[in-house]
Amino acid sequence: xxxxxxxSAIRTDHARPLVAIDTDTLAIIDAQCEEHGADRAKFVxxxxxxxxxxxxxxxxxxxxxxxxxxxxxxxxxxxxGKSDLSAEEALGEIAKKDNExxxxxxxxxxxxxxxxxxxxxxxxxxxxxxxxxxxxxNSLDIASDEKHFxxxxxxxxxxxxxxxxxxxxxxxxxxANELKNAHPPSYKDKRKKLNKLxx
Amino acid sequence: xxxxxxxxxxxxxxxxxxxxxxxxxxGRIIAFSSVVGDGLSDALEANWQKMNRSTDHRWIRNxxxxxxxxxxxxxxxxxxxxxxxxxxxxHKGVIQNYADAFIGIQAGLFCLSQEREESDKQPLKKxxxxxxxxxxxxxxxxxxFFNYIKTRLKSEGGQKYLYIKAKNVATGEIKELKxxxxxxxxxxxxxxxxxxxxxxxxxxxxxxxxxxxxxxGTWIKLPVxxxxxxxxxxxSVPEGIYTVTSNISQLIxxxxxxxxxxxxxxxxxxxxxxxxxxxxxxxxxxxFKDILERECSNLCEHIIQAVKSDLVSINRKGKTIDYFAMxxxxxxxxxxxxxxxxxxxxxWSPEVAGDRVISAVELGLDHRYVNCxxxxxxxxxxxxxELEKEVNPEFDVASISTDxxxxxxx
Lengths: 199, 410
Fold this sequence. Notes:
- The complex is a heterodimer.
- Chain A is mostly helical.
- Chain A is built from seven helices and three strands, in the order ββαααααααβ.
- A two-stranded antiparallel ribbon of chain A has the order 1-2.
- In chain A, α2 packs across α3 and α4 (about 85-105) packs antiparallel against α5 (about 110-165).
- Chain A is elongated, with a radius of gyration of 24 Å.
- Chain A starts with a strand and ends with a strand.
- Chain B is an alpha+beta fold.
- Chain B has ten helices and 22 strands.
- Chain B has helices spanning about 40-50, 100-120, 140-150, 190-200, 240-255, 265-270, 290-315, 330-345, 350-355, 370-385; strands spanning about 10-15, 20-25, 30-35, 35-40, 65, 70-75, 85-90, 90, 95, 125-135, 155, 160-170, 175-190, 210-215, 220-225, 230, 235, 275-280, 285, 325, 355-360, 400.
- In chain B, strands 1, 2, 3, 4, 5, 6, 7, 10, 11, 12, 13 and 22 form a twelve-stranded mixed beta sheet that branches. In chain B, strands 14, 15, 16, 17, 20 and 21 form a six-stranded mixed beta sheet that branches. A two-stranded antiparallel ribbon of chain B has the order 8-9.
- The longest helix of chain B has 28 residues, at about 290-315.
- In chain B, about 45% of the residues are buried.
- The interface of A and B includes residues 193, 197 and 199 of A.
């Protein structure tokens, strides 16, 4: 389906070409801006950054951003006792659960309130997840720098530098290693005389 | 202060498996069936020698060890094919008879020494042994078996010596050997595999490793957490490849109207060749590939249930497993299934499962020998500690000798 292009458009701060956005998307943006009390530029800027963060995390775990979003929601729902749901079903389950909670507390469920609670909770969990991944990213960067430094010292030089930029930021091996104990103790520090049976 | 008594000790690794006993010294491995039998009378043995047309005259294939506790020759491994009665050292993963197991140790050390001599090296003089014993009886057997061995050694000048008198029944040659025993280090059987991974794959880093050793008669589980075997979770289960092949044998028996019983050994022999068809007299060719697949899946399911249950206990203690290793003769049939089950359990990608679920093959070793190599490394490490040196983690298996028939021609 071809989407209609809106007459209005979003202008960037710099003198760059206008970005044409279809009316449906623009309506969503405006609704979100109203909900969060932000202007369009601020909202788009935040959305783009969030998307970049998410696509980085998704790439690290070997998924595209949308599959990653589904997995994330599924994991959240699973942690609340449900599993094997699609993202849409999962969101429905969360809303239903929240409704029940409000009902039990003698409050009338309110769509917007539920949305806010849910959104806040999700954001909180996503923030925690993001923090964990930033730590993860940092440790990978350190490991990658060390590797690069070693390679550079062994004569890799400019070629290695170029190759490094061409490589994906995280290889499967690095990822697998990272999920194991990242800093296993050395056997050399732990080896000890065992109880040998002496004749 | 380094203890210089250890400077001339040769590290040996060994294990008495349910079907095969394996011994390792440096790059040499010898393996023979864990079975002994009474020798033939002198007259019968002389007759056998005259009629024996096999050209395989190796010691390991035709070995007899003199049992001074019974004052008679005992045939070991393949040579026990000529015995009236045979005894397996271990049954259901437990040492059944200390005297027979002691013969097994004598045979292992003699064959290793013989291999050295054939490579123009000095015979074994002084050894320290890393030894694997089945987990279930580990705590009890360690002390009593050691005490038994001590009674069989001879004391000279405050040192303990093992005297071995061996005969090559095919050639009639008799050799005697005297080896000084410095120490023996008894460990859970699967711990050898852990040592091998630690030194060769993990680069001397301590990763929590869950080892599953699938043998002929048993499978053993041994979680190693922070370099220590988890005694509470380690176990030896009397189920192995024998269970699979004997079930197939039983099925063939039933499908033939209970007329023909194909020994499970004949089915076992076909597996390494990747052959899955067997001729059943009167019934034709029986293809057991599907049954084998099903039986292996059942065995794998039993293993994975135990592993999952242990993972819960491990996680409760706040620990996680970095690697899952499957070793032992049965690993060639079960490993891929095991890897897939672990992958499903964690929701890992194939690449991550490939990294975290490991086998001896990636170390360039046969599944069967990884334990005895590890025990050799364990003994080597203990000698290095006594000498206050770093341990050499390198090994290169250059030769493997078994008691299976070689150079067969008539």
